[in-house]
Known about the structure:
The first copy, chain A, is 42% helix and 16% strand. Chain A has helices at 6-13, 17-24, 32-44, 51-57, 74-89, 105-116, 132-136, 165-178, 196-210, 232-245, 257-269, 287-291, 303-318; strands at 63-69, 93-99, 120-124, 127-128, 142-145, 148-149, 159-163, 184-187, 220-221, 251-254, 279-281, 298-300, 326-329, 332-334. In chain A, α1 (6-13) packs across α2 and α1 (6-13) packs across α3 (32-44). The model of chain A has no long low-confidence stretch (mean pLDDT 93). Chains A and B meet through α4, α5, α6, α10 and α11 of A and α4, α5, α6, α10 and α11 of B.
Amino acid sequence: MGNVTIKDIARICGVGVSTVSRAMNNHPDINQETKDMIMQAIEQNNYVPNNSARNLKRTDAKAIAVLVKGISNPLFNRMIKVIEQITQKEKYELVLQHVDDNQDEVTVAIELEKEKRLRGIVFLGGYFSHSEEKLKQISIPFVLSTIKLEEEDGRQEYASISVDDIKESERIVEYLLQNGHRKIAVIGSRKDDESIGWLRQQGYRRALERYHVAVDEELICYVPGNLTPYSMEAGYEMTDQLLKKGKAFTALFAMSDSMAVGACKAILDHGGSIPDQYSVVGFDGMDVAQYYNPSITTIRQPVEEMAEATIRMLLELIRKKNKSRHLVFEGQLIEGQSVRNITE
Amino acid sequence: MGNVTIKDIARICGVGVSTVSRAMNNHPDINQETKDMIMQAIEQNNYVPNNSARNLKRTDAKAIAVLVKGISNPLFNRMIKVIEQITQKEKYELVLQHVDDNQDEVTVAIELEKEKRLRGIVFLGGYFSHSEEKLKQISIPFVLSTIKLEEEDGRQEYASISVDDIKESERIVEYLLQNGHRKIAVIGSRKDDESIGWLRQQGYRRALERYHVAVDEELICYVPGNLTPYSMEAGYEMTDQLLKKGKAFTALFAMSDSMAVGACKAILDHGGSIPDQYSVVGFDGMDVAQYYNPSITTIRQPVEEMAEATIRMLLELIRKKNKSRHLVFEGQLIEGQSVRNITE
DNA sequence: TTGTATGCGTTATCAG
DNA sequence: CTGATAACGCATACAA
């Protein structure tokens, strides 16, 4: 049984292939009876159309793609859910494509645009620094969502949705400062990070600067090569190291909630208490921050709202109802039980 | 600039399309100079071959697909990483495809097999109850990984990798019983669950039975419709309800580590202490169990080993080196700080 | 070593 | 309403 094709169905039904095609694609110009007959034959013979062949011919496909950089970000899952709902409601097919960390997302996008005849693309996550020339090869609208942009104000060529990582990071460190903390450790990404890790560190530095607190480089920890950035394990190991060094600090800013969890555990394992001896804050607004013991003060990114804005903007661009814009969302400081005011 | 095709490149270079094709696909029979010239033209004109057209023609593609059911299982991410590594080493292309909860994974598989000319398929997660007739439509080897199977001993038609959810679940409940607990609450999946939620509950029942402890149905909690099964939130809400009801219990078995986290928080919010007043155990072996405060006793599923076994078995099937088998992996009981022996 | 022609499985076009 | 036929973009057998 070499794969059954449209021709086989046509032969079996004694009709032309175009009639079979019409039956499948809900074309108006077809007799209901012949259509029923054909659909039945399709069922019985387990005929499944070949998508590659379809994509090759079809001109009116309504598909958009979401390219997700990196695999394991739980925040993205929440965003994708929202995007799925809306695209479905708008009768678009959604192509969800994961892009490896070492793959180039724009290259993937260009291939996919041709392969699937896409109408629009959402890029989710990662660091975006591509030449204008390369971006021009994407001939359909696209939106960058939660992506660190190369230039300060963003470029005209694309739309973007994001939070201001520097500002939000500054805010939460400022919160620690307001609670009397001066020796604030920070655990973050790799030393050579140019993406959100770098931005969040900038926020940290700015906050200290505004409070005229000198930055102690020894309190800034970078993920060693053998650990996964932003993971609980990384948070644990870095904090463990810091404590073993005996370096004094009263508060710790973890650049992700997962790291904050690891940091808390390390402190507790060292016999420390939170928030009495050490205050800890995170970043992201994941569930685990709320449910940890103690619950962890963090900056919540409004992921659902951002996801909705992302897909709505893309649809507007596809319908040419709007120009590319750069939308920045506000984070929300969520107070947990992990910070103590040490001036009291 | 309507998309540039292989013909355009051929025309630009003054050669035939087949020569361009040969240049791209590293064919041996081609002059190095013309190849260089062509590759340069491809670069300059930003030519990207259309994958749909390729798939249509190609017969020798070496691709396998992983179909992931449901979107947000962190355990799967760890498995996929392993699978990616191995497939890459074995020079297979990997197609990662997410399948919606309400989509039929076998239908997706059949389509994808034709579209991408696959050589093998891995199904990850979900509940597998498909007719033999439908499965026969998949004409390439496939392996079911961490999937609850319809029949006790599995079928000949497919290979499978799994842990014995009943047995492992029974083991951890037995662990609670050994620690003197008799009033053991369990928080799990939906009431109508026929998949792992049902299996893990069976394990719970068997353990009690073996210890001659009567099952108290009031201690068995089901996720209400508005909550996401296995989530922290669900774990919190269900435990909160249970505590508010005032129903007495000394230990709680959560069917996932995420739920265990939520359960712990609820207990703590009610002023309870872990493990002094309440013992808590989870299931899965996620990072969060280890890093929670207190760390949570759980059953670790050997996901990395299972992932490796999955892909190795698929490759063997593709090479016809082996028959379909059903491999069952042992879980590992990891003791945390969340269980107290109440007989002491 | 290279070019020409054919077909992969569909859909679109056009004539019946 | 229906059927033959020409693309879609590429790989490949075969001829040169």
